[in-house]
Amino acid sequence: MSIANSVGKGTRKCGTILLDAITFFVFLFLDLLDAILCVVYKFLDEFFEGKASPCYCVKKGEQSADCADGERDLSETLYGRKNVFREMGFLGFARKREYRKKRDGFGGGGRLVNRWSDCGCESCVSWMKNGCQKLHVVVKELPQVETDDSRGESAENVIFLHGFLSSSSLWTATVFKNLFEPVKGQYRLFAVDLLGFGRSPKPSDSMYTLNDHVEMIEKSVISPYRLNSFRLVAHSMGCIVAVALAAKYSKFVKSVTLVAPVYFPSAKDGSTLMALETLAGKRLWPPLAFGQSVMSWYEHVGRFFCFLCCRNHRMWERLLKLLTQRRELDFMTVDLTRHTHHSAWHSMHNVICGGVKFMDDYLEILNRSTVKVCIIHGDQDPIVPLDCSVNIKMKFPYVELNIIQNADHGTVILGRKKDFTENLERIWASSQM
After folding, report:
1. Widest CA span of the chain, in angstroms?
2. CA spacing 20 to 30 A to 390: which of 60, 126, 230, 263?
3. What does pTM read for this prediction?
4. Known catalytic residues?
């Protein structure tokens, strides 16, 4: 028996060593490929656009003073991702990032120009042609039409924010369709496509910082609809945006419901890199984890895959419809390509990784303002660990934590649409003011 156990342990140890060796060489190759693609994109950008797009291959201390001053809101992970060949100065063609001063319109800019590597189909660039500078918002009004004078006062307002690589369809396909009939007359619902996702604008010179996302929600929902009070419901990346928005409007927010929020304790000391390592560490298995690693660590490799998938999304959608014999694809499949590399890359780093360092301060503001905060998290979530929500509960006991058994990052909502909606209704009813 002991011999069998020893053999088993030895086999597992050899397997672990082999996997570690393969992982090392795979990511070493990706380091090299990213450095090469940096040079390739430099020449392609100059050829198609007349100017090379800046990248983060340059060390943070090497950018200009104006750039450094303008990029204080950017995540450490943009420059802190280690690459063996970049550290060696391999090829040495990194483009220094020029800081563009913030203009009226979009957060961080508003250049209405499509990059050659982004999709130019009608649905993807319609916001440019219309000169639209507001987010796409799906509004579910009350059954009874109200006058302009009473808008925002006679009903409860609820703003829904989706997660990474998603859209407002997450909420319109779930909560909007499952609200209990008597409840529909009490709430006006706003499902938002965050900046850079879905049908919302995707400006090529926005840095997609946390503040940019908050300002666009203010401009697209709170101000035009004159919301003097509202509730927030958010999933994944949207939770960070929701907490930031709630902290800014703590006197007007009635409740905040966070589904699978990203959070790390001791957030101000290197938490951005901790978030990157935890959420998208360099792993080969499972395949989803490997994909997250590649798209989060390698700026130019990620742009290449976005060029293949997002720029050619119509071709892939037609192919999938043909293979599945379906007239319409699931919204989750469509949403995966409804972004640009620039918008997804910067939202990943500046919101998901960079935003966690502000979470403690924002949650403390909500605590002092006695805003009801509820968290819903699946115990089988492989993307955002359950520990994130548990750590919030430990540091902020006032937060209500609801752990859903046998639910992961998506099925915590999609696998229990009616139950999830009923849970929201109970939360809203319990926090009436």
Report:
1. 82
2. 230
3. 0.90
4. 162, 236, 381, 409
